[in-house]
Automatic annotation (TrEMBL):
Protein name stated in the entry: N-acetylglucosaminylphosphatidylinositol deacetylase
Origin organism lineage: Eukaryota, Viridiplantae, Streptophyta, Embryophyta, Tracheophyta
Key words, A-Z: Membrane, Transmembrane, Transmembrane helix
Enzyme Commission number(s) from the entry: 3.5.1.89
GO biological process, alphabetically ordered: GPI anchor biosynthetic process
Domain of life: Eukaryota
């Protein structure tokens, strides 16, 4: 009798006062499961990247063999808008190319002077390029009066096309890599650079210049870090009518090292960006 009463008493106490507690325990369990799944997924993805046992056909991009059996070395020009674009967005592709012995050039169309740090940022680009194994003499940084860094500064596509064309002739470039029309972060200068390259392709259609754009992903994929390797591997299948290549960063540490050379930009939120950005781990390129 006595015990039963206590039992009932406890039960009703439990129901009335502890229901929120149970809900909280469940919510915590759910969070714990979500967070631990994300961690497991991150670790597995990083492992996959570093060990290179990736299900996509490996190294088909620019890996055509010449008659002699050696890889056909290309002169590749990266066309970017600001110092640090190369490290923040294009490191997987730059690493892929330098490891395979291609000749990488960078054309940076502004010194990134929106905050008055342009002169410093130009030097930082040379330091980052050294980390990325791009020789100093293969890096051009422009400070053109009509191509200044900033939102709302429109860059004229004819001027861009002329500048890029000169660079192509000077360095015997046969392939261009640049932003797509969104430009990863949506910066208008990135978008304009894309249209400068488009203009050039239209103008010199008779020349055998090949161009590839870096595909901008949605915000979920953009901040999924290494996990994006699984999502971007679905992408080439979806767009089978387009020529798409998905390149893994074989040395993700290099993205951090290269970005760290941009000391004037290397603030906490960019460190977080580089850790969480899928562009640190994988690049999807589409033929323009
Ligand atoms: C871009 O520049 C060219 C010549 O430099 C000029 O003819 C053209 O009108 C300009 N385009 C725009 C949109 O300002």
């Amino acid at each position: 009798m006595y015990l039963g009463t206590v039992g009932i008493g406890l039960d009703s106490y439990d129901n009335v006062f502890n229901a929120p507690y149970h809900a909280m325990v469940h919510a915590r369990m759910a969070w714990f499961l979500i967070v631990s799944s994300v961690i497991v997924l991150w670790v597995a993805s990083l492992f996959k990247i570093i060990h290179g046992s990736y299900s996509l056909p490996k190294g088909t991009f620019l890996n055509n063999l010449k008659n002699g059996g050696s890889v056909n070395k290309r002169n590749v020009l990266f066309v970017v808008a600001h110092p640090d674009d190369e490290s923040m967005f294009f490191t997987p592709t730059i690493n892929y190319l330098t490891v395979r012995g291609h000749n990488v050039h960078i054309l940076c169309l502004s010194i990134g002077d929106a905050d008055g740090k342009g002169i410093t940022r130009k030097e930082e680009l040379y330091q980052a390029s050294a980390i990325l194994k791009v020789p100093h003499q293969q890096v051009s940084v422009l400070d053109h009066p009509n191509l200044q860094d900033g939102f709302g500064k429109v860059w004229n596509d004819s001027i861009l096309a002329n500048i890029i064309e000169e660079e192509i002739t000077r360095n015997n470039i046969d392939l261009i890599i640049t932003f797509d029309n969104y430009g990863v972060s949506g910066h208008c200068n990135h978008h304009d650079v894309h249209y400068g390259v488009r203009k050039l392709l239209q103008a010199s259609s008779q020349r055998k210049i090949e161009a590839w754009e870096l595909v901008s992903t949605n915000i979920f994929r953009k901040y999924s870090g290494p996990v994006d390797i699984w999502l971007s591997s679905l992408n080439p299948m979806q767009s089978s009518h387009e020529v798409v290549h998905c390149l893994l960063n074989e040395q993700p540490r290099k993205s951090f090292l290269a970005m760290a050379q941009h000391s004037s930009q290397w603030v906490w939120f960019r460190k977080l960006f580089v850790a969480f950005s899928s562009y640190t781990y994988v690049n999807t390129l589409k033929k323009m």
